[in-house]
Amino acid sequence: MHARRIRSTVAAVGAVLAVAFVIAAAAVAAPDPTDRPDPRITDGTAQRRLDAARERWEKLGARSYRMRVRVSCFCPEGITRPRTIIVRRGRPVAPVPEHLRPYATVPRLFTTVQDAIDARVARLTAQYTSVGVPKTIFVDRSFMIADEERGVGVDRFRTLR
Fold first, then answer.
1. What share of the chain is helix, strand, coil (3-state, %, to 5)?
2. Half-sphere exposure of 96 (CA within 13 A, CB side)
3. Does 110 share its domain with 48?
4. Do residues 20 and 43 share a domain?
5. Percent of the chain beyond pLDDT 70?
6. What is the pLDDT of residues 94-150, one digit of tens each?
7. Among residues 30, 62, 148, 149, which one has the fewest Cβ atoms lying within 10 Å of its Cβ?
8. Stretch 88-98: mean pLDDT, rounded?
9. How many CA atoms lie within 13 A of 109 on its CB side?
10. Rounded Cα gap, residues 99 and 114, in angstroms
11. Are residues 16 and 49 in the same domain?
12. Alpha helices per DSSP H over 30-159
């Protein structure tokens, strides 16, 4: 009698585990509807705005300029402190901190936006100045991942001779 009860219990536990496995597999396989690409990416708006900003930037023809860059993230204060970057002939003139290298020139800022578009991130916000400089970029790669969002702000932009 005891062996029969054990077999019955093992069978019941096995059935429960099989159902749990099927439910878990379905949950993993099903795409999360909240993690779709940003609609401004899927409808082409983000790409058109980026292309227009690049055109305005190229018309300006600035190769030497100064700008203040601030990263917004769930990071230590030293990372989020604004820094002034000076660019001469298209290259930063002083050593740029590692965390600011992807944002150290206007073309690199454009690359940040293009990479987000190409990756079809969950949320992308990019605003540009009248001469095409990205003044705000916000990227949330996935709504399902906490605290991985990153923003970049550019202000005090000025061309140099």
1. 45, 25, 30
2. 22
3. yes
4. no
5. 79
6. 999 999 999 999 999 999 999 999 999 999 999 999 999 999 999 999 988 878 899
7. 30
8. 95
9. 31
10. 18
11. no
12. 39-42, 45-60, 77-80, 106-118
Same domain, 75 and 6: no
Query: Both 56 and 126 in a single domain?
Result: yes
Task: Please say if the pLDDT value at position 3 is more than 90.
Answer: no
Containing H/E element for 21?
helix 2-29
Q: What is the domain extent for residue 129?
A: 35-159
Residue 150's nearest CA partner among 69, 39, 75, 49 is 75
Q: How would you list the strands of the sheet with 150-159, edge to edge?
A: 91-92, 83-88, 65-72, 150-159, 134-140, 123-128
Token reading at 46: 């983000």
Residue 141 contacts residue 122 (beta carbons within 8 Å): yes
* Token duo for residue 50: 């980026």
58 with 110, same domain: the answer is yes
Say if residue 61 is in the same domain as residue 132. yes
Contact present, 6 and 86 (Cβ < 8 Å): no
Q: What total number of domains does the chain contain? A: 2
